[in-house]
# Entry
Amino acid sequence: MSASRPPDPASPRSGRALGATLRTPAPVTGSAALVGAGPGAADLLTMRAVRALERAEAVLYDALLDPAVLDLAPPHARRIDVGKRCGRHAMNQAAINRLIVDLARQGLHVVRLKGGDPFLFGRGGEELDALRAAGVPVEVVPGVTAACAAAAGLQVPLTHRDMARSIHFVTGHGRDGTVPAHDWTALVRAGGTIAAYMATRTLPSVAAALVAAGLDAATPAVAVENASRAEERHVFGTIASLPALLAAPAPSGPTLVLIGAVIGLAGAIGGAETAGGAEVVEGSEPALAA
# Structure
């Protein structure tokens, strides 16, 4: 009985097996940039964001951006709408991830142009994971987030050493469309200002959870629709009254809700009436902070 011999490395069959083992994917020649476009107004783009757009060969952009932002990309750059509007998605997130990678593998410099900041409720982390896994060189360009733009337009400080020593960013919309299971008691106990993103439809539940956790029902609150844009609209109230005030008419644009004592300063300094000509809902002026 003869012993089996190891395969000859010089044989054609062995060479094919060895080649298959050692074969590696072709290097990626393109690159990607996750670029924060801010809340919508073109003049809130950072200089770094402008430079990224000027180099772009493909731009995957969110909905509701000022068209002037896209004009900053070269005329030959591909422009692909991947945005979401009121629950209607031009493309789901998994498909967006694949498309960014595929375009970079074609050798293109891809800009994923995202509203606000890429890493603040913008799914930028998921896109970054996909690009890293594919070996695509990636840059992240921060953007002005909606809470900062809304506060600036209202001339309301998000933090104030006399009444708000912290700021809390929360989402009012989970993967399944319901309110995520935040630790509401911890939020109320911490004090400060709460910025609730994507909370238009779930605001009744958010408000009820905060009040049940101990937040004073008279705490000032404001909903800001289309922050920084010409059609910006403010709806003032309290955390208890705002859900009903916001329901008629319901906002159609992206809306952020700010909650906390600092909102009362909008009336104290006149910011609500002078914020770039924004509409203020009648009969819902902010209560002055004590």
The chain has two domains: 31-141, 146-280. The domain at 31-141 is CATH 3.40.1010.10 (Cobalt-precorrin-4 Transmethylase; domain 1).
